[in-house]
Amino acid sequence: MDPIHPPMWCLLTDLSTLLVLSFVGAFGGYLSAIQKRAANSEGVTHFSKLTKPHVLQGAAGAIIIVTLCPVEPKIVNELFISPDPQLFIKLIALALVGGYAGVALLESFANQYAKRINELQEKQNSWEEEEKSDLAAKRTAEQILRGFVLTPSEAQEFLRALREASPYTRFDISNRADEARRQNWQKGKDTLERPLSIFQALVKADDAASNHWWYASLGYCLKDKSIPDYAAAAKCLDTAITIRGPETRSGAYEFNRAFCNIKLLPESGPAHRKLEAQIRRDLNTARQFPRFNDIIDNDPTVQEWLRGQHVAQAA
Q: For residue 69, what pLDDT is reported?
């Protein structure tokens, strides 16, 4: 509460300001009606009908323009305490302009609100559509992990829902699929087709380029399923490592790529030498981590390849 001016004084000041602005704005609206009559050569009868709405719109326009322009309330209040003729004239001129342009101001003000309402409505519709896609994507992913086989049209619908779902939903679905992969990669290889189909859909989403572990998980599924596809698995792991960057966090990507490349290794030639060099680099990187150092020492496929390397070097 203002200690100098009581609430009643502030209320009277605001009402007085409103009356002055309305009167000046109404006069501006009247001038606008005269200008329209002159421009359109309207008759006197029509002019009387034209004047009333312009006067009302002028009063509203004056209030709007003073509200929108940087005129602080305390400056207006000071006009009633210690009048400043220059400031008073500026305020009257501003209200007069607002009154004269009352129709345009009202339309502009209405358009601004209408645009804002449309934006809010569009956001609301977008949220609703996203919620529908979230629900559809989660429901279908759950069906897939339980063994439901999608028809081609259902697979396309799942892909569409997955793309239109929120990033959080895609993250949640990928976590569920990866958990199913972890539980079944050794003893339930037949069921790896389920998370595999989910990761195949996930890597087609727009944000796959920032989720390297989706490609890695897809590569693991392709490598560990009942009929492995080592070539496709190696490509997925190549993509995962490219997106992730050169710094490894566990050695998992490198070990699994080395394993796949051992399976794909040609008998001889430049491609053989190039792939062997890549395998050695990947195994050396994976050995930096105790877990994969132990895995390398006990994996029969890798050990057989390493023995062959020793034989070749001895020869």
A: 61
